Amino acid sequence: MKILGRIVGAILVCLILALAVLRITGLNPIGDTPGPGNYPGLWLSGEVVTTPITDWSFVNQYKTDKLQTRTWYLIPHSVTTGHIVHNGQLYITSFFPAGMPFPQGKSWVKNVMRDPHVRLKFGNNLYDCVLSHVTDPDERAAVLGPAAIQNPQLLASSANGPVMHLFHVLPQ
């Protein structure tokens, strides 16, 4: 019994040390396009920007963003996502096929539905924000309208079609 206790203790110490190293170094998601071929990460690394952002137009220079959510088990989950800037406001998108195992579609969306506080990364800068799920059809159409010209599936509303979650980025 004494040996088992030492083994379990050693494993716990190693796990805590590994998490401490990952927390210091960060573990950003791998990939620059949302979808297949990307790997999620843990903590995002970079410089935290504390100045409130009123116009997000500067992020148009980036094809994607990195988004860190809070999980129920207290270890952050970060992914590469897409974004849209509309009238200076920033929106985060989640696009996935119908029939996913849970209604939110992706684990990061499930995390945001539970706790909307997130951290965004553009370039080497980190922004602490709150995401608000956009359900108003008029706002969705206004934001997705220009993007739907390039990808008409965004506005499709068939029961068997793809699902799109849209989140408005608000200051924390």
Structure description:
The chain is α+β, with helices and mostly antiparallel strands and 172 residues long. It contains 3 helices and 7 strands. The chain has helices spanning 2-25, 107-114, 137-150, and strands at 47-49, 65-69, 77-86, 89-96, 117-122, 125-133, 163-171. The chain has a 6-stranded antiparallel beta barrel. A hairpin with a 7-residue loop joins strand 2 (65-69) and strand 3 (77-86). The mean pLDDT is 82.
Q: Based on DSSP secondary structure assignment, what is the total number of beta strands?
A: 7
Report the sheet with the most strands, covering strand number, pairing sense and barrel closure. 6 strands, antiparallel, barrel
Tell me the β content. 25-35%
Please provide the ordered H/E string of secondary-structure elements: HEEEEHEEHE
Please state the average pLDDT score.
82
**Are there runs of 5+ residues with pLDDT below 50, and where?**
none
Count of helical stretches:
3
Shape: elongated
Class from helix and strand fractions = alpha+beta
Give me the Rg, rounded: 18 Å
What is the distance, rounded to the nearest whole angstrom, between the alpha carbons of the first and last residues? Answer: 49 Å
Helix content: 25-40%
Give the helices and strands, then pairings.
Elements: H1 2-25, E1 47-49, E2 65-69, E3 77-86, E4 89-96, H2 107-114, E5 117-122, E6 125-133, H3 137-150, E7 163-171
Parallel strand pairs: 1-6
Antiparallel strand pairs: 2-3, 2-5, 3-4, 4-7, 5-6, 6-7
Give structural attributes.
27% helix; alpha+beta; 172 residues
